[in-house]
Write a structure and sequence with these properties.
Elements lengths: L13 H27 L19 H25 L7 H27 L1 H29 L10 H19 L6 H25 L2 H19 L1
Helix pairs in contact: 1-2, 1-6, 2-3, 2-6, 3-4, 4-5, 5-6
Length: 230
């Protein structure tokens, strides 16, 4: 998978669009399963219990697997995003942040599978560090990537909604983690849902290819021309 410039070509390489479709499906499946768990886990309060509580007990293994699959999908999506951008809009920092977030997410899932039994003294510390690193890295990556979309001709028209969605996710995360307002479970799940929604949104853009953005600009230009002719 080469990161050669593709923004000026008529279509992105097929691996980029396939990765976008995979990211969209993975994000939707993750959110759907988390929603189902709220109904299946009657022993947990959906407003008070944070998502990490669902990693243990009934269906806990399924959520840990879902964490790992989302981490894998996110790491591939980050690579596809960078490859889809013009060189001026690319950033190794963004790629590193997404991959660090994916590593943190996988560490939470794998660590919660084995550490409570084999290293109970370290289990909680590993979980907290990995989870916090995942949150910080992914929200930083989302905001920075959204800002840098403005430098790419095919993504420029999508920069504003990307920043808006990322900004809302950041605000909810700050409200939950720093201000500690509202129910703990609801706040954390809302932040996760918004971040995954951003991944789904960008995955859809990748799956559709650059033609959608180009056709939108063409329609806008046509409207401008018709207005000038009047």
């Amino acid at each position: 998978m080469s990161l050669s410039p593709v923004s000026d070509s008529p279509a992105w390489p097929s691996w980029i669009t396939r990765t976008g479709a995979l990211a969209t499906a993975a994000g939707c499946a993750f959110l759907a399963w988390v929603l189902v768990l709220q109904l299946l886990r009657s022993d947990l309060s959906w407003t008070q219990a944070q998502l990490s509580a669902y990693l243990h007990g009934p269906y806990g293994l399924s959520l840990r697997v879902a964490y790992c699959l989302l981490a894998l999908s996110m790491s591939l999506q980050a690579l596809a995003l960078q490859a889809s951008l013009a060189p001026a809009a690319r950033s190794g920092v963004v790629l590193g942040l997404f991959w660090s977030a994916a590593l943190g997410l996988a560490t939470v899932a794998i660590g919660d599978s084995y550490l409570p039994q084999y290293a109970p003294a370290a289990a909680l510390s590993v979980h907290l560090v990995a989870a916090q690193a995942a949150f910080l890295c992914v929200i930083a990556a989302v905001l920075l990537q959204s800002w840098q979309l403005r430098a790419d001709p095919h993504w420029r028209t999508h920069a504003a909604p990307a920043l808006w969605l990322g900004g809302v996710a950041f605000a909810v995360l700050i409200t939950h983690a720093v201000l500690r307002l509202g129910p703990r479970g609801l706040g954390q799940k809302s932040a996760i849902a918004l971040i995954v929604a951003w991944l789904i949104w960008s995955g859809l853009r990748l799956a559709r290819g650059p033609q959608a953005a180009r056709s939108r600009r063409t329609r806008d230009n046509a409207n401008d021309l018709s207005t000038e002719e009047c």
